[in-house]
Amino acid sequence: MHIGSTFNHRYVKSNPREVENATWMLTVFHCFGQYFCLHFEAFQLGVAPVYMAFLRFMGDEHEARQYCYSLEVGLNGRKLTWEGIPRSIRDSHRKVRDSHDGLIIQRNMALFFSGSDRKELKLRVTGRIWKEQQNLDAGLYIPSSCS
Prior knowledge:
Elements: E1 2-3, E2 6-13, E3 27-31, E4 34-45, E5 48-57, H1 61-64, E6 67-75, E7 78-84, E8 87-88, H2 93-98, E9 103-106, H3 107-114, E10 121-135, E11 140-145
Parallel strand pairs: 1-3, 5-8
Antiparallel strand pairs: 2-10, 3-4, 4-5, 5-9, 6-7, 6-10, 10-11
Domain Seven-in-absentia protein TRAF-like: 29-126
GO molecular function, one term: zinc ion binding
Family: Belongs to the SINA (Seven in absentia) family.
């Protein structure tokens, strides 16, 4: 289990062509007194092999809407970023995956972000979780980070 609102995970596979429909070990986070789960998997999107990362909240959908998260992959001054609301753990991972509600990276782009010779997957996914706090005086939402 990881404690804190920021994270940095590396997903490595010596032969990225063998990872169709593969799921890496799930990572659980504790932040704001709540639990979150980071998913990372490979699957076919139509005929294209892709990797997908997304965050789920261990609670119901209403509670999940109180939080936001961002995921990022990048290398050499280039990056892809996803920002969203975590899905409830009560939604199956297949439902989340099939709705494309997360960071989707095509295999050739994932290999580009892996560096070196593009023959090995070495993908670093960084992220952050924050809680939306409503400022009733101004009618605004102010993001805050977990300490």
